[in-house]
Amino acid sequence: MKLPETVAILGGGNIGRAIARGLVVSGQFSAKQIIITNLDRDLKSLDDFKKEGFGVQSDNCDAVKRSDAVIVTVLPQQVVKVLDGIKGSLNSDKHTV
Question: The pTM is what?
């Protein structure tokens, strides 16, 4: 199976951050291949990731459009809202969720 070129991690909390760092530590991805989004929090909380070369933004749809794989790492009560918000940006021929 071919690895994705870019990964969007929707949710910049503890789990999203751990996954992002784990992908880089695995050696399979560089920080520049990963976009981390943070909707409900100040993006300043992700400044350390930005300094390390990760893409950081608050627009889930744009992150999805710029990625090949999407990892959703939000709280359970936020999942439906996030998925509803990105459904128009998903392309079944391109994206793995």
Answer: 0.93
